Amino acid sequence: MSRLRSERPAAPLLVSVRSPGEAEAALAGGAAVLDIKEPRRGSLGRADDAVLRAVVARVAGRRPVSAALGELTETGAGLDVPAGLSFVKWGLAGAARLNWRKAFLSRIEQLAQGGTGRGEAPRAVVVAYADAERAGAPSVEEVVAFACEVARTRPAAGGILLVDTFDKRSSSPSGRPLTLLDWLSVPAVTVLCQRCRSAGVRVAMAGSLGVSEVRRLLPARPDWFAVRGVACVQGDRGQEIDADHVRALVRILNTAHWK
């Protein structure tokens, strides 16, 4: 019994949804966090504002809700984020040679100053693309260092990192879709998560993860596993979220324990 008490459940599941109906399916399957995005617009494609508001209204506080707001280089100086979100995130594609740190810190300040219009400000999530070279993004190392610095200096506003892939269409020579683990090894992800935990950074691990990748990454102990494709009908991220697929993933995580 003492051994069991020393263990804790594995990371909860974050599911990306594109509509109120998908949100209900993810909730029925047991998702811990819902993330709103439009996959047809890219890895972090922003959904229309009407969709953002509709999903937040449908969830009605039952789970935290996050939203992808596109790439930092695509957005203007203003900040227009619907109320009711717990987290918002921007990617850094095309930002490798820009002053992306200053731009991201500006977003954090806008959120802290009530840039969402009303209610509690969401926390800012910085995204590291494992395939950074393809994305024209800063390296994973650079983004991890930045996330750790934000956690130290602005713990209430940031300190959250998403590790994802930018290119969702490429496949291996055998035709298998590329995943996070084609760019980062399990030991590298484990070291990354250890470093972030030590710095007070919470980590969501994404990147076209399937059941096999989730199982292999469990020892790395991220704070969340973030998925879409594997939670959809036929495992296709362009299809609808399926509650049974979500439920199966949640079952895997609920039966895995870390010491």
Our Rg estimate from Cα atoms comes to: 17 Å
Q: Tell me the strand percentage band.
A: 15-25%
Order of SSEs: HEEHEHEEHEHHEHEHEHE
Query: Which sheet architecture does the biggest sheet show?
Result: 8 strands, parallel, barrel
Question: What is the approximate shape?
Answer: globular
Distance between the termini: 13 Å
Question: What level of helicity do the residues show?
Answer: 25-40%
Average predicted confidence as pLDDT: 89
- The order of strands across the largest sheet is 2-3-4-5-6-7-8-9
What is the count of DSSP helices, taking H or I runs of 4+ residues?
A: 9
Q: Give the strand tally.
A: 10
Question: Which features does this protein show?
Answer:
259 residues, alpha/beta, two-stranded antiparallel sheet, 9 helices, eight-stranded parallel β-barrel, globular
What's the quick description here?
The chain is 34% helix and 17% strand. It has 9 helices and 10 strands.
What does this structure look like?
This protein is of the alpha/beta class and 259 residues long. Helix content is 34%, strand content 17%. It has 9 helices and 10 strands. It has helices at residues 2-5, 20-29, 49-59, 100-112, 132-135, 140-153, 186-199, 211-217, 243-254, and strands at 8-9, 13-17, 33-36, 65-71, 87-91, 123-129, 160-164, 202-205, 224-227, 257-258. The protein has an 8-stranded parallel beta barrel with strand order 2-3-4-5-6-7-8-9, surrounded by 6 helices. A two-stranded antiparallel ribbon has the order 1-10. Helix 2 (20-29) runs parallel beside helix 3 and helix 2 (20-29) packs parallel to helix 9 (243-254). The longest helix is centred in the middle third of the chain and has 14 residues, at 140-153. Mean pLDDT is 89; it is low at 1-8.
